[in-house]
Amino acid sequence: MTNQSNPQPDDNQAPLEQTVKHLQRTKEEELTKTQAAQFNLEYRNLNNLQPDPAAVAIVPKELVESAQIFAFEKTGTKVMLALTNPNSPATLTALKQLDAMDEYQFQPVLVSDSSIRYVIGLYDTFAPKDGHPITTSINLGKPGTSITKLTDLKNFQTKLAKTSTSDLVELIFAGATGLGASDIHIEPTQTDVRLRYRLDGVLQDIATLPKATHETVLSRIKLLATLKLNIKESSQDGRFSITAEDEHYDIRVSVLPTQYGESVVMRLLPQTGKFVSLDELGLSQRDRQVIDEAIHQPNGLILNTGPTGSGKTTTLYAVLNTINSPTTKIITVEDPIEYQLNGVTQTQVNPEENYDFANALRAIVRQDPDIILVGEIRDQETADIAVNASLTGHLVLSTLHTNDAAGAIPRLVDLDAKPNLFADALRLIIAQRLVRKICSDCKTATSAPDTIFIAKIKSILPDAQIPATVPLVKGCDKCNGTGYRGRIGIFELLKVTPEIQAKILSGASSNEIKQLAVSQGMTTLAQDGIAKVSAGITTLDELLRVIAE
């Protein structure tokens, strides 16, 4: 159990008001400590403790509220019981009732009025739901409150107002899984709490929660993710799992302090979903041939670049699924492991134990692998080991954060990787983004492109071919009124030829390398995107949104 000093700030208070409030609470705690000595009782500050759900559940909620008592710690049969007035009739009556519970020994401790009000307000957060103890997982089953499209949200606020804390959290997850959200954002404002889902890569407003629910929802999520409830002024990261209609999800939780309270972002990683194949990524025929040639090489380095959420992991997993076989040893090191791959050895970094990408990669090369996937090259040590591994008989796949394929070269130089080594190791650099696809259910008749459309296309690619027709986006129930449903990749595949290697060794700029690659047949992100616009797969506005990021 945690015991750290940390005030419980009120979300809406200015810094001066928070300071005054903290001083008042400090004075109250000091007075309570003095009173505890007078009553010959132990003193505890509940603001600095994380209650044990197993202890909380021992005393029924009705008794907790009527007697203003709270069980917060359990060791064997011994239960620590917080109270504020040991001589009050309600407390004395409650103690007699609890004494009748032969299986427990209750030890009263004195706490302040404000601290017991705080924890009693979170009783539903700590207590088991339907008799089941709090765990690091949620089983949604087939919830009747599940929503499958945004138009169902007209009754969402009513459902939120009528549900308990634990049910509220489950309702939020039911909506997210039903809509296929990749992320859940719970953002406190000055007056309320904003709930948003990221759908097809774009954040959508879902509902507004009452400000009063923020603390209980936050505490429930923290408990699930095994985070410290009393830590409110620094960030925390955790994880738990949920199950929804036989789909298993790994939930990654990030909590960040803000001026109006703690903001929570949760990423949903489906563990039982169908893997996307190379054929489903959206690669052109030329790009598919290039990638096939590279991934069937016995050694070398393949890099995938792009911002967070651009589909890099999906592409690399598609590659691994393509080349995975009983005669091949594949080992991955990831942060985190996003999906379980059959027949692949996967390991996850743990910086707290000094198990980072470099140390993991150093160990992996001693495991006799044929193919190695490194989640990300972040430093010189990892870059050097990855390059050396690719030069000594291993095919190595990894990612970098750069805007385009050629940008990977100066990024490696920035990491102090040696050009004379990585130029020889590199086989292919993939840059990619994800664009939303036009909803096939509400796509309307096409029209001729207007002057604005033509001007926008020319601003991206001056020599672009203008499509004869442009599909119109409408919006329907199937796409939640957005006009888009699902996503597809746009790609830029830079094949590292002898001429490209020579450019790298000469210290050429990324722009010079890109121009040479284009002259050798490389399709740029913009060109691939416009091809998908011309084919009626996505829209120009969507392409502009993505390549401008």
UniProtKB/TrEMBL annotation:
The keyword ATP-binding applies. PROSITE patterns: T2SP_E. It holds the Pfam family MshEN. CDD domains: PulE-GspE-like. InterPro entries: P-loop_NTPase, T2SS/T4SS_dom, T2SS_E_N_sf, T2SS_GspE_N. GO terms for molecular function: ATP binding; ATP hydrolysis activity. GO terms for cellular component: plasma membrane. Residues 365-379 form the Bacterial type II secretion system protein E domain. Keywords: ATP-binding, Nucleotide-binding. SUPFAM superfamilies: EspE N-terminal domain-like, P-loop containing nucleoside triphosphate hydrolases. Belongs to the GSP E family. This is Bacterial type II secretion system protein E domain-containing protein.
